[in-house]
Amino acid sequence: MNVDSFRCSLCGRVVKIKERSDAPILEPNIGFGVCKHCIKELYGYIMEDEHAKIHSQKKTFADTLGELLEKNKPHVIKEYLDEFIIKQERAKKILSVAVYNHYKRMKYGLEHAGMDDEIDKSNVIILGPTGCGKTALLSHLSKLLDIPFAVTDASSLTEAGFVGADVEVAVRNLYYAAGQDIEKTEHGIIYLDEFDKIARKSGENNSITADPGHEGVQQGLLKMLEGSVVEFTARGQRKHPEAPTIKVDTRNILFIVGGAFVGIDKIVAQRIRKGESNLGFGADIPPKEDTDAKFNELIHQVRPEDLMKYGIIPEIIGRLPVICTLETLDENALLRILTEPKNAPVKQYQKLLEMDKVQLEFEEAALLAVAKKAIERKTGARSLKGIIEDTMLDVMFDIPKSDKPRKVIVTEACINDGADPTIISLDEENESNAEVAD
Predict the structure, then answer these.
(1) Order of strands, sheet of 358-362, starting from the edge strand that comes earlier in the sequence
(2) pLDDT tens for residues 348-381?
């Protein structure tokens, strides 16, 4: 054999070496050479074997369901939520039990497939004022369970045929939150926020005019909540008959709908007082403290008939058997939220400034001022970080100009009057302390 060709030791063909890419993997003068065709085939076999191994090792959701239930009993879920959510004890218990039972239902369905004794799905409706922790509760819950979670604004949905987002968008959002994995999507959690905004405008009475963003949306959600195959197009694609669609079965998706339901407490109060004489000289006039009962005392007494009166259609209420209610956060609760949870706003800013060798300190009066401002804004815990951000903006802009270690002290005047936080050089403080010690 001349130097311009060689015989492949695997396939036996004689290969002429025209280019460098044609050269054998080993020099032919040592008695062994492999041609590029055999190399490609060998690579293909190796990759097929690797893919087969990965596929065989990949666990399905059904394989991990028993482990998920064993690790996440209701008391374990609540203990985890306690690390991030202040108060709302009743809501944390309700959600812990609801989620645990939802995945137990799945396990039962897998173990008793084909039998008639199915356990019905228990979707959840969650009520509470703005900034009380509804979305935060569910977000932390999904992280603990390591399952896909997607939030969709129900007020943006419209009835099919009208301009706006169709109800299938909620499932599509979960599909992308699950990394476009259909199996993960079919076992995730969908949270429909602002659900109270799609209540019928006329409450218990049907409207005779078009109502594309209210009752029609509720009707569109019915089958999805109960469990059906939902078809939707990929993001960016227009919906038309020939467009390729993605199909997702919603039987095992946990739906949680929530909102502030402003005024629901008044409906509850009316129901509680129903039957009492309210007219004439013999009217039963309750004491002022009973008439003006606190929101927190009434919200926990919400019943399906109250939701119906608010404007949620009976068919939807039947598919939301679990009612979870959250309380208004008072000043003490907001103070605790600022500093106690793992992801407390104050802790977050302290970690950010530590990266610039700066110690951040909030005086107790300053924290109290932040809590009071949040109550004045009537936005609950949602506005806490924004209030601190306004105060810290100039400091965070100027701090990186120097590498010297410093301490920043935020006072009450900083929150209420816009005064600059006190900045102390730690080098000078250490020197003065050393002089005092001498």
Answers:
(1) 358-362, 406-410, 422-425
(2) 999 999 999 999 999 999 999 999 999 998 888 8
d(C-alpha 200, C-alpha 311), whole Å: 4
Q: Which of 107, 108, 401, 142 is nearest to 256 (CA)?
A: 142
pLDDT of residue 292: 37
Q: Which of 414, 412, 427 is nearest to 358 (CA)?
A: 427
- Within 10 Å of residue 147's Cβ, how many Cβ atoms? 21
Kindly state the helix (H) or strand (E) to which residue 125 belongs, with its residue range.
strand 124-127
User: Across the strands, what pairs with 165?
Assistant: 157
Tokens (6 digits) for 107: 């396990």
* Tokens representing residue 67 in the block: 């482990």
Mean of pLDDT values over 11-25: 68
- Are the C-beta atoms of residues 359 and 425 closer than 8 Å to each other? no
Furthest C-alpha separation in the chain:
122
pTM of the predicted model over 0.90 = no
Give the pairing of strands 422-425 and 406-410: antiparallel
Cβ neighbours around 229 below 10 Å, total: 11
Tokens 């927190």, residue?
296
In this prediction, residue 188 carries a pLDDT of 92
pLDDT tens, 214-254?
688 888 898 888 888 998 888 767 666 667 889 999 999 99
- Host H or E run for residue 1: none
pLDDT band per the 50, 70, 90 thresholds, residue 26: low
Q: Could you say which DSSP state residue 199 is in? A: S
- Asked if pLDDT for residue 283 goes beyond 60, the answer is no
The span from the CA of 249 to the CA of 229, in Å, is 4
Q: Which residues of 74-111 are buried (b: 16+ CB within 10 A; e: fewer)?
A: beebbebbeebbbbbeebbbbbbbbbbebbebbeebee
The CA radius of gyration of the chain, in Å to the nearest whole number, is 31
User: Rounded CA gap, 371 and 70, in Å?
Assistant: 39
Q: Dig out the tokens for 38 from the structure.
A: 């055999």
Closest CA to 374 of 420, 319, 332: 332
